[in-house]
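step: validate -> pass
step: tokenize input -> pass
step: predict -> running
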Amino acid sequence: MENADQIKEMVKQKYAEIALQDKDTNAASCCGAGGCSTEVYNIMNDDYTQLEGYNPDADLSLGCGLPTQFAKIKKGDVVIDLGSGAGNDCFIARAETGETGKVIGIDFTPAMIDKARENAEKLKFNNVEFRLGDIEKMPVTANVADVVVSNCVLNLVPDKDKAVSEIFRVLKPGGHFSISDVVLVGNLPDKIRNAAEMYAGCVSGALQKDHYLSIIKANGFSNITVQKEKAIVVPDDILSNYLTAEEIAAFKESKTGIYSITVYAEKSEACCAPGCCN
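step: predict -> pass
step: emit ->
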């Protein structure tokens, strides 16, 4: 079993490779995990192309939802995007917050930061910035953001409790987040959970849905709402890379589910957890 540092390094290397791939290569995979399936074009990703602010150069087809669509971003808001990649969600958030707001993208893969900065320069956005940093220890001071968004990233973070506590820290009192992520209902077979390709593909690092939501509640958030939920069906040709035919049949009969959910939660105006007014 890999430790946290090994997991981070594996994910960082994988996403450095993804930063150099074209969109079609990534889209034909499980969150960029490599060529995945002949049965479906894309298992996880939702269609961004109709959203204002969409920029094809920044879309690497790595998400599992549309968190910015549900994030209730207002003009002038400060928005932080966790795991900002090439900048796709940041640029859509910028369309919502306008020139009077600010968008900060955080990613711990240098190649992604470079790609996102290049895209921002081409778009001539002076209120969108990208910071190299770890979601478990964000390079942002406390009580800065009105809104935090993230798209299929927290499931890759080893210490999800620490990541959620950091979201709480950087949000202003009264702020909120909208995060799309992958969760489980039931237990995945170990062969899938332990496969590095599936880990970088957003599945093996996922938590049970109830546990995921309980971490959010335990860190002081209120009004926790699942804004969207969809089942992710993993085709047999992907499963056959990890399981025998008999194991696939048993997996399907087990009713184990992989879901993409978009979760909303608020940080209270008043102090409701240790350190929230620091």
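step: describe -> The first helix runs from residue 4 to 19.
step: cleanup -> pass
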